[in-house]
Amino acid sequence: MSSIPIGSRHIFVDESGDPSLETHKPGVTNYFVLSAVIVNSIDLSVQEKKVEAIIEMFFPNGELKSSKIGSKLNRRKRILEAIAGLDFKHYSQVIDKTKIYSDSGLRYRRSFVKYISRALYENLFIAFTELHVIADQFGKSEFMQGFSDYLQRKLQRGLFENHTFEYALSRDELFIQVADVIAGSILRAYSGQDPMSVLDPIRRNTIIIDEWPPYIPEPIGLDQLPEAEQFNFLIKRHAVMQTESFIENNSSSDDPEIQLQVVAARYLLYHFRSVDPREYVTTSELRHHLWNLGFPLSERSVRNKVISPLRTKGVFIASSRKGIKIPFSVEDLRRYVDVVNSQVVPYVNCLKICRNHFLLATEKKLDIVGNEQFPELHKYISDAS
Description:
The protein is of the alpha/beta class. 50% of the residues lie in helices and 13% in strands.
């Protein structure tokens, strides 16, 4: 028996909803959800035994299926709580088909399938070096076939030689059943059939829930709202747009540091949209997320190699003593200014005192903040004098 590489992951993929874009037709869902459940290959057999115990508890002699749970909210929560005890992560995509513009190329089913397939796999390939993908065989839907076609093209080009793809029946792959329940629960939450809180039990297992297309609805009568509320909306919209623009423009980069920043930006955007836009993400939490995706960094490196470069590249990141976040309001930005003010101004004032001392002592022959060496700082201190 060959040994399993330490970094190897098994990915179990299932979908929920209808990929058809004809949402006006009966039975066609407004949302389409795709969930990829990620398990360390070396732990797979142990975790599968735990899944068997969950199935025996809730569905003796049957399968874990979201459709079997249906509208029984308390039962769904108990099953998700049991699933949350497994050692896995999931990356899910939620597509709001009603927001795909009528003049977009994605209104065509094949284009839609191709786009979503590519998005899921490219994001997984960036994060992991060796994947064994197993998708639900039931029906071999056009959507799942899109995965296979995409992956095979990449394999033929030798780009992802450590990745494999296969179909399997859910009865034979227990974690496809887990993916089914997760995807179905997300669909019900986003469709309004269940409250969003139904997903709380599996938050810690969630890497990201990507929402597409990006959308921040403009409040009705925006120009009639108080100025403060107009500013809050402006900040939310611009902050999200800047983050999305950075992700879109850099997702295909081969630079490891850019990949690292894209992963971090995705997580901050996920937290803003799907967790709580008012809540801060601690540096420790972001560092833990990056570690899970194969980026082992210290908290100092997270600040220097992730947060600072993202800000330099136009991503708006507010900070306070509680952590960092995509800004949601004027107050978020003012807290950020307060942090900068408390850190930067004392340093600059101390520097001015030192500089002025030696300017006086040398009759201006020695300027430690010389214009040639430090033009920007020299200008700032001179203007502030």
